[in-house]
Amino acid sequence: MNDEMIVKKAIENIDINIKAQVHVLQTGRNATGNAEGLNVLMLAKQHLESMIGNTPVEIPALVGVEVDVPSKKQTITCEHCGKVSNHYNHNKWHGDKCKSKK
Fold it and tell me: Among candidates 7, 10, 12, 32, which has minimal Cα distance to 21?
């Protein structure tokens, strides 16, 4: 493998990790730490792209970004079964994933 192929493979791996970080941010778990990790991944991708001659895209810094994280005490009622649960359990077991969904 030549250097350019290695860099392209590294960019593919970073893209996979970026998608995973975005998913975690959307679920609201450890938002501050994951936003910082996403920022590092985006900067690494930008650096690798510049190594193979691609024009890097401007990436805004995400460190210190306020993310709205639901409170653990906040409750949500499932529209399918009527059970009341916190945000995390609702997203995991209820809503579109509820066993009572028809």
Answer: 32
